From TrEMBL:
L-glutamine binds at S48, G232, G234, L260, Q263, N301, F304. InterPro entries: Anth_synth/Amidotransfase, CarbamoylP_synth_ssu, CarbamoylP_synth_ssu_N, CarbP_synth_ssu_N_sf, Class_I_gatase-like, CPSase_GATase1, GATASE. This is Carbamoyl phosphate synthase small chain. Residues 1-183 are annotated as: CPSase. Gene3D superfamilies: 3.40.50.880, Carbamoyl-phosphate synthase small subunit, N-terminal domain. The active site is at C259 (nucleophile), H350, E352.
Length: 373
């Protein structure tokens, strides 16, 4: 273990002393804990973690290294990383680099050797808060002040920070776009995970990714068969340009929203979103499909959620009835919705992720069916 000191100070003054992991320096972000036992590479490269410091609850992380295939983005957008113990060596046939080297290379400041269980209990009991990791300043009062004055996630448009600058086609292994495909899908990149693009390509779609600020008129001119609203970081309620785009697309083409995309679709339909106490981040969240009563084990990563409409599971929107289709069995929060009069549906969880189970794969088939009809 790197013996260089590091400190984590929370907004409320709680302090953890540990060792530096990754780059030296200082970083501030909203603290979240992720309960996945593996998949740290996918977590690190998920753009939805922009603005956040991620603590992993599983105690030993890094033992299968980092490979070239499992990245979810070209860049790391999270603010910091916390583990109990980073494995000092890694072993896997695909591994190209150790986790700690990878973090240094990507400039991510982290801390290890702290009681991640105590940190998790703190976040779970008192809710998420800002935290600061430092390897250069150990003055607790000063660090706490900095954490307190950090902006937080609410009211911040982080999509603008992570969306692609230019449109691009998702290419196959030979580097050419999948053009002669059955369905042409436009993906609004709000911080898209590559697994979504991989799944769509695997399902037989040609996949065109566009920046989040692309107008709905431009998207319609491209004549897609369907539109995917991707995952992404931050507070959905302030991403007004996406909400306006969705309003322009509803009823014109089939829409499938994933995570932030689900929240944005809900907002466009007149529903509300709000922040959860500490969010859902992990690979074993139980979700019930209310129409079949079937329970799926799902991967999730979100801090905000769609509120249950005051009149119950059916919401009257200007686009017709909107039904809440899925609920989280842990806290009964909204996990999915569908429109009755226009082809649009969405889920709060990640059907493209497979933290073991592939329970939610069927949603891609459903999207294909919607495009077909
Ligand atoms: N993974 C996501 O798309 C996250 C959605 C949103 N930023 C949230 O935290 O709730």
């Amino acid at each position: 273990m790197n013996e260089k000191k590091a400190i984590l100070v929370l907004e409320d003054g709680t302090c953890f002393n540990g060792c530096s992991l990754g780059a030296a320096g200082e970083t501030i972000g909203e603290l979240v804990f992720n309960t996945s036992m593996m998949g740290y590479q996918e977590i690190l490269t998920d753009p939805s973690y922009a603005g956040q410091i991620v603590a992993l609850t599983y105690p030993l992380i890094g033992n299968y290294g980092i490979n070239e295939e499992d990245v979810e983005s070209y860049k790391l957008f999270l603010e910091g990383f916390i583990v109990k113990e980073c494995s000092p060596f890694s072993s896997n046939w695909r591994s190209k680099i150790d986790l700690s080297e990878f973090l240094v290379k990507k400039g991510i400041v982290g801390i290890q050797g702290i009681d991640t269980r105590a940190l998790t209990c703190q976040i779970r009991d008192f809710g998420s808060q800002q935290g600061i990791i430092s390897t250069i300043d150990f003055d607790r009062t000063r660090l706490q002040e900095k954490a307190k004055s950090a902006p937080g996630l609410t009211g911040r448009d982080l999509v603008a920070k992570v969306t692609c600058e230019k449109p691009y086609d998702w290419v196959n292994k030979k580097g050419t776009p999948h053009l002669s495909r059955k369905y042409k899908v436009i993906v609004y990149d709000c911080g898209v995970k590559y697994s979504i693009l991989r799944k769509l390509a695997h399902a037989g779609c040609s996949v065109h990714v566009v920046p989040a600020k692309t107008s709905f008129e431009t998207v319609l001119e491209m004549n897609p068969d369907g539109i995917v609203l991707s995952n992404g970081p931050g507070d959905p309620s302030v991403v007004s340009y996406m909400i306006e785009n969705i309003k322009g697309l509803l009823g014109k083409r089939p829409i499938f929203g994933i995570c932030l995309g689900h929240q944005l679709l809900a907002l466009a339909l007149g529903l509300k979103t709000s922040k959860l106490k500490f969010g859902h981040h992990g690979g074993n969240q139980p979700v019930m499909d209310l129409s079949t009563k079937k329970v799926e084990i799902t991967a999730q990563n979100h801090c905000f959620a769609v509120e249950i409409p005051s009149q119950g599971m059916l919401h009257k929107s200007t686009y017709g009835d909107v039904e809440i289709t899925h609920l989280n069995l842990n806290d009964k929060s909204v996990e999915g919705l569908k429109c009755h009069s226009v082809p649009a549906f969405s889920v709060q969880y990640h059907p493209e992720a497979s933290p073991g189970p592939h329970d939610a794969d069927y949603l891609f088939d459903r999207f294909l069916q919607t495009m077909k009809s």
